[in-house]
Amino acid sequence: MSTRDVVFPAGRQALYEKNRYSPAIRSNGFLFVSGQVGSRPDGSPEPEPTAQVRRAFENLNAVLEAAGCTFKDVVDVTVFMVDPETHFEQLWSEGLKHWGEAPYPTLTGIGVTWLYGFQFEIKVIAKLPETSAA
């Protein structure tokens, strides 16, 4: 079995070790990022849903930056949302601020009933820059 090429953003490794998963893995020129939620540095959720989305994108950006990527490198997005019928427009409008101009990444949105105390989670696949592809 090959060793996983794990990417850890600064200051959050203890949370990932506690929960026993990798924030992101580099593989075959791509970066596979685990779902990012609106957690504060101690792992607790931001109390307000829009602030949770904002924080989830900040956490995602930290993982992308640790791998040498930006939002422009993201090719596929999956979002999970509690009660999307009520919250989708409000919460996703916060996310739209990060994608820039078209062409946009692909998007799959999934409504869920539970996210461990969170309202929103985002996971992505990004194309690694040629210089850091592993």
UniProtKB/TrEMBL annotation:
Database matches in Pfam families: Ribonuc_L-PSP
Superkingdom of the source species: Bacteria
CDD domains per UniProt: YjgH_like
Protein name in UniProt: Enamine deaminase RidA (YjgF/YER057c/UK114 family)
Annotated source species: Hydrogenophaga palleronii
